[in-house]
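Final report, results section. Input specification for complex C-07:
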Amino acid sequence: MTDLQNNQNENKSNISKMTSLNKETNVSTNCLKTPKGMRDFGPAESLIRKNVMKKIITCFERHGATTIETPVVELMGTLTEKYGEDSKLIYELKDQGGEMLALRYDLTVPFARFVATSKIQFIKRYQIGRVYRRDNPAMARGRFREFYQCDFDIAGIYNTMLPDAECLRIIHEVMSDLNLTYKIKINHRYILDKIMEFCGVPESMFRTTCSSIDKLDKMTWDEVYNEMVNEKKLNSDVAEKIKNFVYKNGKEDVIFWLENIFKDYKDTKLISTFNDMKSLIQICKDFSMDHCISIDLSLARGLDYYTGVIFEAVLVDTNGIGSIAGGGRYDNLVGMFTKKNKSVPCVGMSLGIERIFSVLHKNMKKEKKLRQCTTEVCVVSGQSNMFSNRVKIVSKLWDNGINAETPYKRNKKLLDAFQYCENEQIPLCVVVGEMEWNENSVVIRNQFTREQLTVKIDDMIDTLKNLLNKPNV
Amino acid sequence: MTDLQNNQNENKSNISKMTSLNKETNVSTNCLKTPKGMRDFGPAESLIRKNVMKKIITCFERHGATTIETPVVELMGTLTEKYGEDSKLIYELKDQGGEMLALRYDLTVPFARFVATSKIQFIKRYQIGRVYRRDNPAMARGRFREFYQCDFDIAGIYNTMLPDAECLRIIHEVMSDLNLTYKIKINHRYILDKIMEFCGVPESMFRTTCSSIDKLDKMTWDEVYNEMVNEKKLNSDVAEKIKNFVYKNGKEDVIFWLENIFKDYKDTKLISTFNDMKSLIQICKDFSMDHCISIDLSLARGLDYYTGVIFEAVLVDTNGIGSIAGGGRYDNLVGMFTKKNKSVPCVGMSLGIERIFSVLHKNMKKEKKLRQCTTEVCVVSGQSNMFSNRVKIVSKLWDNGINAETPYKRNKKLLDAFQYCENEQIPLCVVVGEMEWNENSVVIRNQFTREQLTVKIDDMIDTLKNLLNKPNV
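Structure output:
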């Protein structure tokens, strides 16, 4: 090829004659950035993300989960009436003939639609994908408009709390695998509703009152009280009564305390809910993870679709990151997509993987540079007439499953090539020299020890594989 | 937990009282489907896709490529004026305050924007991601509105055709790894333009005439001739002249033939282009893949951004699938995103992975059922009072990195559990029985041979790992 730099001017004039490409240069240079709240990830960040995702997938598969994929775009009607106050954050597409579309807001509602569409009765699946929220981005705190979610869900009718507990266990395993210290708050939607009823909250205000209480992890009681009484017009006596409940947290003791308060309620569903919560704690004990969990009556979670157990994991000793995983039981969501509301009960959890990345990224900056390059062998030469032979050698390495490259330039200097290998931490070089080539040989050089040995080309692959400790690929 | 089926009615009335969830059931049940041209992938399909992608990534990394990620959404201005006649297929988002946004149309333009944004001088990267086209879907032929692309690109200034040839080599390796038979057509934009000039096509009609010629793989000469002369108003003599070129294909012989035709042109760029094409063929020979390539003067490729070599791979012996990979050199695209048009030359290729999936899917249907389940050990019991002990055992397996599950029901019958393992091809069971438990033992059962052995719980992990041939995880 002619030197591209020299040809650039000529090239440009030809191209602008032929196409309209360069006319719009002004438009394009204004577009040097990504949309608000969205990001590029370069090789180093992508590698960290890839490694974290691999650990998470390993954990999901340890639990026998399969994976599915649903579109990033859904019909608008699929998403409406599922997210409560958050619905205003849904990203809509332009109507381009026929369908009202939106970008998915989470992976849970699409999963429920998938279960209904595919008429599935039971499935344990994970899904990793991007979701979209037209939120006010706060990049420093890991809040974006486009971000990954990692979800694990179990759909099916079972008579134990084991699926619910397994979601907690997954959080436990992922956090442990990533060396993060965390705790999980647990609550139950039905208990929350009964507390509302007990305190005298009007039924129509159950959800909005809960969503105020849910802010207690970020706001003081006075602020929450103010929101409930002055903004949402809740009776002040009622708000005072709620205070007795929301600071309660612990394990079975909280359930015993509630059982006592509600002992005159002849509500069989409430009784079985209390028993469910005790079973859940028992299974967490059998999982040796009960030290990480606590019942927390202020936890409410905003999304409309939850019907049973709800939970949220927060990091300990990491200020400002907030919840890092959350989930719960949503027994009626699939039914909303089926005729006659034929329900498939579900429970699941979602990992806030972007927040995990931002924590790990901070930790990693303290450590030494990550090797980004996957190349194991670099084929180099000091002589420009060896170009074709370098190409033949690198081709042979690829044929044999060795990660390899050779400089693209015809006359790359040997010392520059060695320097490149050192920077990129490429362990081995094959040096192609005219003298050796005439004897069907090449030199293999260890970039770390600088040891060199001359081998016949026929023995080169075996020698390299031995040096790389690589079995047949 | 109380039996969910029995509680469903009660549940429903409570929920509908509390939230507005069920009011909109009619909306949701109409939304049982995915948007037009988009699809769900269940566990079996996802597994095939995952395995294919793994092979492709292995190949990309064999060539020392890193990976990056860019947003699915780009500023509209980033995408305008890059795709020629295809621009009408870009998916736009609703203007929701401030930014005009669109879903990405390919991964090439976002890559060029990324290179410009990050001020990168050289990079070899791959990217796998979904792209969006408001095209008329033809699902049976593998044409969708949302689909994956797998791209491999090399950016940087080099004085050989090696980067261009490496793209062809990557196609070769992926096709070979997937046991597909293919051939690659190669052409060059500058040669095409000189042919247009030679035949007397007006400069303003170069691109649109090329895009007609490009249809020769799907249309007859008469249809293409008709489009050029009657629709696009090209002079009929000119069209006749073009015919002499477009059926020409071969190797160096085509270049020699062209050199002869253009021998009186004193165009140094054309001379160096011919030399480039001969170098490219030589490198393909050194790569032992020259039998798979041919220069084909009818190949044009529609996208505006190509400036040099262009290529397209088609499957041999698979009717109707069309091109399965394509790409080329685009030396000015990065420059469109930088001030003063500071260019970074690029060459790259994109794998039509959906078409590959649809071919592999057809082939695979002939073969036996794929194992979808990742579970290696199922913990079962014939007694319902062993539920808590099953939970303890499965927890121990997870702790030791063994893929395991236990039935969610308290009283799952032993034979049903064995049947489930057989269906899912789960190789091992741990049977928890009361008698063995009292002696700190469990039974390990091989589901294929039906052999059973009783082991102490302390020895269970080692025994299972030996049976699974699994080193310490």
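Chain A touches chain B through 142 residues (CB under 8 Å). Residues 43-62 of chain A form the longest helix (20 residues). This concludes the modelling results for the funded period.
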